[in-house]
Automatic annotation (TrEMBL):
Pfam families: Tautomerase_2 (PF14552)
InterPro entries referenced in this protein's UniProt entry, alphabetically: Tauto_MSAD, Tautomerase/MIF_sf
Species per Swiss-Prot/TrEMBL record: Neisseria chenwenguii
Protein name: Tautomerase family protein
């Protein structure tokens, strides 16, 4: 159950572009982590220019006015190689689907123990392993 949070500048993306960004994240999850295609937990937060501060060139980047900060929470079961692939594909698919620059995404990956996650139903993932396995098929 990876969860994406994208912090984007207000008024820079259409409704369709925001949906395409969410699709890019989910496709990256599927291709990099073998997550089910319907494993979609994405929040896109718009921030006014006086509430979102991302340097346009640090460190040696060329960010546009569509630059964003993206965080994704994954389980601690994910390997370094999976995280590398996820980082690569999040950027690749966002560039392809939304038309932003490859330097526009600053990505932070947070690894959480499975006991800190719940799909819902009042059960944490480690207590509901059978139900989780069914959902992951």
């Amino acid at each position: 159950m990876p969860v994406f949070n994208a912090h984007v500048p207000a008024g820079k993306f259409t409704k369709e572009q925001k949906a395409a960004l969410a699709d890019a994240f989910v496709l990256a999850l599927h291709d990099a982590l073998n997550a089910p295609e319907d494993d979609q937990f994405v929040v896109i937060n718009e921030h006014s220019e006086d509430n979102l501060f991302i340097h346009p060139t640090f460190p040696n980047m060329n960010r546009t006015d569509k630059r964003m900060i993206v965080t994704v929470d994954v389980s601690t079961t994910r390997t370094l190689e999976e995280k590398r692939k996820l980082t690569e594909l999040v950027t690749k698919y966002a560039v392809e689907k939304v038309g932003i620059g490859q330097d526009d995404i600053a990505l932070l990956i947070y690894a959480l123990p499975m006991e800190n996650m719940s799909f819902g139903g009042g059960k944490i993932m480690t207590d509901d392993a059978e139900a989780m396995a069914k959902r992951m098929r």
